[in-house]
Amino acid sequence: MDNKKDNFKRIAEKRTNKIIESISKLQNLTNTSFYEYSDEQVESIFKAIQEELDNQKKIFEDDKKKEKKRFEL
Q: Is the entire prediction scored with pTM above 0.70?
C-alpha cells in the first residue's frame, strides 16, 4: 500500500512541478518587443487552462465518490 502512495507522491510532484513551470513560461509572452496580443486572447488562454484544471479536479472528486458507494447489510 505504501508503494502506491509513494508512487503517487513521486509522480504527482514531478508532474505538478512540470505544469507549474510551463504555466510560468507564459509570462515570457508579455514581452511586447516580441509579441502583440489582445485582452481577448489572454482571456482565452486562461479560460482554457482553468477549464482543464476544473475537469481534472472533477475526475479526482468523482473517483472519490465512487469509493463511497459501498453496499453493506
A: yes
